[in-house]
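1st attempt posting a full record on here, be nice pls
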Amino acid sequence: HSDESLRANFSGMIRRRGLETHCRNLGEAFLEVLESLGGRDRILVLGAGEAYFASDFLTGAFERLPRSDRVRALAARSHDDKPSIVSVDLGTEPERFRDPKHRYLTGFFSSLEDAELGKFGAVVDMLGCFTYTSTLSEDLQKSLDALETGGRLWIGTTDSLAIYRDDRLLLLPEWLATIDGLEVDFSRPRPVT
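the predicted structure (as tokens):
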């Protein structure tokens, strides 16, 4: 995908992915990590759309009440005990949601300055940057660099992302497993509805 094409077709991308959708599609381990993050932690959400993940998590004001008791409990925690969230997307910051623990950055992830981002306990991309990017290896490296020691990277995509390396074609999880110090737990996501 070219950057111009992404900008031109931006409105047709998958949108409205809130907290429950992320937890359902990224699995039990993802929910456990969110439950372990506290008020001093930070989450980076790539391809954040209208920031529904951040809005649901920080305000607990869901458009539709989550089926999961654990997701409701997560969003019901005290505001001080919730992590700060940085959302990155090509769109504009949503008018409907402002919170002191949320920052919305507009633009391509690859073009953001590292100093503008900082370090995170979790980086999350569900059908976002890694699905549509024309600079996959640079974006993956940037996301790994944004993780603090012990941080977790969560990727949900409908595509079979592959990387050609050393005369071999590797699926994304296989390639990630070649990075020293990186633990990869791969499971196929459920279909997104």
